[in-house]
Amino acid sequence: MFISIVAIVCFFLELVYLAFLLRIRHGIFNVRIIENIPSSPIKVSIIIPFRNEETCIVQSLQSILKLDYDAEFLEVIYVNDASTDRSALAFKEYEKYTHIRLINLPEGSKAENRKKFAIQTGIDNATGEIILGTDADCAFGPFWVKTMISMFDLNTGFVSGPVAYSNCKTTFEKMQQLEFSGLVLSGAGLIGSGNPMICNGANLAYRRHLFAQVDGFHDNNNLSSGDDELLMKKIFKQTGYKVKFCFKRDAVVNTSPSRSLEEFIQQRSRWASKGKYYPKNFLYFQLVPIFALYVLLILLPLIGILAGSASLLFLFVLLFGFKSFSEYSILKEGNELLQYHITPSLYLQTAFLQPLYIVAAVIKGYSGNYRWKGRSVKK
Questions:
Q1: I need a surface site. Which of 64, 120, 231, 356 has the fewest CB within 10 A?
Q2: Which of 172, 199, 168 is nearest to 184 (CA)?
Q3: pTM attached to this predicted model
């Protein structure tokens, strides 16, 4: 009887997850549609908040100088969030470029909203019609701005762009690359299906006046994360503008994976912490059984081994097999865009460990006890 009940629960959860993945796959098909480039230039303000990024800030500045966009219509605002290293000194060599500005923030406000404070300060000092956001540890090609801006027609208010992990050498880094690519593609698919839920602050653009119209970060300023997804949802829900995903190779922003397991868990926990602020709609409640599926994928093999139950182990193999095959088909859709290397062995390792860190990150993120940029975040 117990095995039968577990089997029914597994079947139900798998169906919910497959329906979710079908929605994503259909959405990816939709976002592949090519948009027309605007006929006239648009003033763009790139906002780059940073803290203790001396190892990569020069790479960021060099990427900015290589951009193929009329400097008359471009301003770049770096906002230094009280760095304690030599990050700010790098700007001495770039003072001659008038379209690049540096704003230094003093230490003093709560750790939970420091990044949002930095972004808000950048926007307060911006003059562009479009705000284009990224991070200081990112690099991009010369056509990044042009490609992202090409998505803005008169009815578009927010554009999410692709982000990829690059320079992945170890197995741990390559596993992160696959997992992160899945997140990016899920975000693209949900936007394409008309249900924007996931995006990344390393590559997004929105109309400056809409930030003020939806009251910016006012309702979630106590949260260290959410400067991307929660803002996207507010623009989608509270304005008449569309949200799009830029499924173009020239729009890709490259960044690096976490270098340690601790750093990885802290990052994922921070991302998971904003889940409690998601609007309570039908799609949100789909995530509950999906989370339950991940929990089952952890418990089934453990209970099966401890109880010596071949039936539970067989259920685990079926559940894991269907889930992994379905996710693999989604990953194949984004290989050309994000350019990751996927092998059966690497994929199976990643898929097997995925439930463990997702459950751990959600629990840790909802508890609010994690670190970010050298600061403790507790709720």
A1: 356
A2: 199
A3: 0.89
